[in-house]
Amino acid sequence: MNLEAIDSYLSRARGRHLDSFAELLSVPSVSADPTHKQDIDACAEWLHAHLSGIGLENVTLLRSGGNPVVYADWLHAGEDQPTVLVYGHYDVQPPEPLDLWQSPPFEPSFRDGRVYARGASDNKGSFYVYLKTFEAFMETAGAMPVNVKFLIEGEEELRADHLASLVTEEGERLKADFAVVTDAGFFTADIPGISTGLRGMAAINFTLHAARDDLHSGGFGGTVPNALHAMVTLLNGLHSPEDGRVLVEGFYDSVRPLPDEVRKAWEELPFDEEEFRDSLGLTQLFGEDGYSPVERLWVRPTLELCGVWGGYQGDGVKTVIPCESHAKISCRLVPDQSPEEVLALVRRHLEKNIPPGCRLSVDFELPGCYPVVTSDKHPALDCALDALREVYGVEPVVFRAGGSVPVVEILQRILGLDSVLLGFSCPDENFHAPNEFFRLDNFDRGTRTAAHFLLGLRDRDDVKRIAGRPRSS
Amino acid sequence: MNLEAIDSYLSRARGRHLDSFAELLSVPSVSADPTHKQDIDACAEWLHAHLSGIGLENVTLLRSGGNPVVYADWLHAGEDQPTVLVYGHYDVQPPEPLDLWQSPPFEPSFRDGRVYARGASDNKGSFYVYLKTFEAFMETAGAMPVNVKFLIEGEEELRADHLASLVTEEGERLKADFAVVTDAGFFTADIPGISTGLRGMAAINFTLHAARDDLHSGGFGGTVPNALHAMVTLLNGLHSPEDGRVLVEGFYDSVRPLPDEVRKAWEELPFDEEEFRDSLGLTQLFGEDGYSPVERLWVRPTLELCGVWGGYQGDGVKTVIPCESHAKISCRLVPDQSPEEVLALVRRHLEKNIPPGCRLSVDFELPGCYPVVTSDKHPALDCALDALREVYGVEPVVFRAGGSVPVVEILQRILGLDSVLLGFSCPDENFHAPNEFFRLDNFDRGTRTAAHFLLGLRDRDDVKRIAGRPRSS
User: Fold this and answer.
1) Which residue, of B315, B341, B369, is where some domain finishes?
2) In a domain, A336, yes or no
3) Whole-angstrom Cα distance, residue B167 to residue B357?
């Protein structure tokens, strides 16, 4: 079992590996859109076949009320060796707006050392890295350095409750010493790193109703409520114009204060505010006063408008007073907020502030997932950082992430499993946006890093759980 | 020439007349949508054939850079008789949102004594009344009591500048003593009346731009401007939350104060605020403090949000920070505001208040039309009121209207022509909204009223212009 042989195998097989990666990216496995149900199933089937083909065993499609979850394992490294649960998700975000894509979202386009496709960076690229690393060990050594279990789910972009049920039901099958969560990425495109904290998420969709029908702005304008005007008033009241704070009563009550030493440590991080701003095509950043951008991103909760609409959207002019308007809000949560608590607060705020003459209906609520912080002392984290340092030749950083990966909190809460978030995405790769891409360099170096990491875990007794309890508890 | 014969003819021909009305309503002559260009032409051709068929002469399709304008006349009443220019428009508003229609907008549905179709009330119904009245005179007496010219245009819902050019170019052809503008209606469904004032209109569409692309609310939320949040802030600043006034600087500067005696007279109008409110399915009315609903509707300018959108509008949740948001605003204007002046003020307000980190682009501006007040002393107005009183058996009211009919101001300004706004729509007939309808009772009584009105104009020297100047000047 040696890394040179693995490197050589991966170099030789690269073309074939990218072809099959393109196949995986071609499946429009959009979990949020019911019309893609067949594509979800097709993607799970594709993975079932692929995992079987590369030598994984017990390949199974598990279900717990939702989209199939792909499970597979290889447990022949010996009982003394650690067992690693590798997590990924094959579902992707909706690709809309389609007209902003330079190449179609489900026709992978290889250009400029990148592959452009919906799901390339979030998360098909990173879990595929681990599949090819597994294949490389098996093809060069006929074995893995540690026992591995793969769990690749299909509702990460949709909801976390089905995964939580499945993890509860399948606790025995998923038993491991710790998890490697591949739905993660680097600090910047140039600086590899591993995050040890994630924000939670909660979302609410609602409608304001005014008159029975849309009304003519001439015949009625000046006398009746306008559902769009009312929506603007209601939404505007969600943030303070002075300091950008969320004005929902109680919103910050459960937010854990940041220790001074952590704040100080973060000031030393190689975060270049100007470069960050320019990379997004912005003239200035924006957010809550009194916190640095990384604090606002990692340890401050947010309330964002993800969609608002009402009235006429066609060409030209339609002089209408809309009778309905719609909004989609999502919140990012930080310890110790809970999604249920935040949804209740937001709903109460909305209901208390319904503009005159309007009626509010809540169309959908998603208590998405809890915020989580993982141990920054876990020995497997050190192994992962060693691997990054070795392959990338720079000092990786330990940071937090602003996004949400529900599985980390679910594994911690239900199975007592620690997670190491070693994925190979970069924050500029347009996930959840048009023109999502994945760097092929990170496919190449990712597989070498994963191989280094897994090999480094061999014989490491300190990563093993003691008597079924997580190391960190 | 007698009204009994006309009544009898119209009763006998009713089925045939409604069949041909349904044909007219079936043509989706939507002027705002370029994909309906052929339907616009088809509607003009249908009218050309129809007008020729009922005995009108010199039937011509005029153009002045825009959709065809249908002209026709019958000038054999004698030089001593008044010449009346009858105005209507065959273009209709876009029918969207289609899913709120109970029957398809271009498949006329006759039910409950009404015909449901886009354009039924605005304005195909009312000008069709005059066509059938003309036909009835010709079929029963072989002549009209006065000279008539018809002008039926195809861009009323779109823009007024083509009509203004055409009226300038065709001044000789359009020469008349006064105009009857059929794009008008009653005070309420129960109370016939004639309006002597109309508001003007101006519209502006714009976009706010923030980051280069849509961004992930996890990876970026808390640090970057959200184009929807920015739009909400910008739009919210357009009205005072305290008193509902428009906060655009200078917006009210040109507004002509309402004389006390007019305000007092309007207090006597049979306007039932509760009934008005309930008819719209509202729990309360809404508007500028310090003015009655009819004042807000007739002599106060407004600024309405007619369309706002940005971000994700599909099912479920997409945790995106939108990089673009869009708004369509329309203003109703009152004397002595001008559309150009108001657009400049609104644009300046928007540009001065662009939220941090955003860029604004104005996508479209429509200096729609000027507000106008017509003479309430014109003898033809008395003739029209007499006809309403006679046919409907109740006292008609003279009021103002909140909507805009550009032709009234254009004929006044360019040709010095007074207008009498005798149309047969009712304010509850959902024009510009789903389920537009026209009452068949007002088709029947409308034709009798128009006949009474036109016959009453015969030999009335006092409605004639003196030496080419309008009576009212």
Assistant:
1) B369
2) yes
3) 47
By Cβ distance, the residue of A222, A276, A311 closest to B306 is: A311
By Cβ distance, the residue of B218, B316, B430 closest to A213 is B430
Structural domains counted in chain B: 2
Same domain for B452 and B350:
no
The CA R_g of chain A, rounded to the nearest whole Å, is 24
Mutation site for A-interface testing, chosen from B245, B320, B353 by largest number of A Cβ within 10 Å: B320
- Which tens digit of pLDDT belongs to each residue from A461-473? 999 986 455 554 4
A330·B317 Cβ contact <8 A:
yes
- Residue B274 within a domain: no
pLDDT tens figures, A235-274: 999 999 999 999 999 999 999 999 999 999 999 998 999 9
Is B454 in the same domain as B357? no
Give the strand pairing for B419-420 and B178-181.
parallel
Within a domain: A470: no
Cα distances (Å, whole numbers) of residue B149 to B24, B129, B131, B172, B237 = 20, 15, 11, 12, 48
* Closest CA of chain B from A20, distance in Å: 27
Contact residues on chain A for B330, CB-CB shorter than 8 A:
217, 317, 319
- CATH number for A207: 3.30.70.360
For residue A122, what is the nearest residue in chain B, using CA coordinates? Answer: B216
Cite the DSSP H helix spans in B293-435: 293-298, 339-352, 379-392, 406-410
Tokens of B429: 């007939």
Mean pLDDT, residues B351-356: 97
Average pLDDT over residues A437-460: 98
pLDDT at B368: 87
Same domain, B235 and B353: yes
User: Is A191 found in the same domain as A95?
Assistant: yes
CA distance B448 to chain A (A): 26
**Domain end point (choices B312, B337, B369):** B369
Regarding whether A141 and A186 lie in a shared domain, the answer is: yes
Give the model confidence (pLDDT) of A276-321 as tens digits.
999 999 999 999 999 999 999 999 999 999 999 999 999 888 889 9
Q: What is the CATH number of the domain that holds B103?
A: 3.40.630.10
ipTM passes above 0.90: no
Q: What is the DSSP letter of A178?
A: E
Query: Ramachandran region of residue A150, left (φ > 0), alpha (ψ -120 to 50) or beta?
Result: beta
Q: Same domain for A254 and A363?
A: yes
User: Which residue segment(s) compose the domain that B305 sits in?
Assistant: 201-255+301-369
- Mean pLDDT over B434-463 rounds to 97
Q: Are B21 and B442 in contact (CB under 8 A)?
A: no
| pLDDT on residue A99 | 92
